[in-house]
Specification:
3-stranded antiparallel beta sheet; globular; 2 helices
C-alpha cells in the first residue's frame, strides 16, 4: 500500500539567505536580523512576528504559503525526509 504525504517545502536559514527566504521563497516581511537569527512578519489575518533562529528550518504547506512550521535541525532530521523535486 502506498504512503501519501502532503506537499511541503522547506528551506534552512543559514544567516545569509534572509532576503531570499522572505522575498522569493515566501511572501513574508523581514522585520530584523542579527547574529541570533531573523524575525519575520508573517502576514495573515494579522501580522505575527516570528523568530527564526540561525540554522533552523522553515517548512511551508504548499496550498497555504503563509503558514509555517519552524523546526530545529534535530527536529527537522527526526521528523522529515527530503524527497527529490518533481
Amino acid at each position: 500500500m502506498p504512503y501519501v504525504v502532503p506537499y511541503l517545502e522547506s528551506i534552512q536559514y543559514d544567516g545569509t539567505n534572509a532576503a531570499h527566504i522572505c522575498g522569493t521563497w515566501a511572501d513574508v516581511e523581514l522585520a530584523s536580523e542579527d547574529a541570533g537569527g531573523m524575525v519575520v512578519n508573517i502576514v495573515g489575518d494579522s501580522v505575527v512576528p516570528t523568530l527564526v533562529p540561525l540554522g533552523y528550518w522553515l517548512i511551508k504547506n504548499r496550498p497555504f504559503p503563509t503558514e509555517f512550521l519552524i523546526k530545529s535541525p534535530s527536529e527537522y532530521a527526526a521528523q522529515h525526509v527530503e524527497l527529490p523535486s518533481v
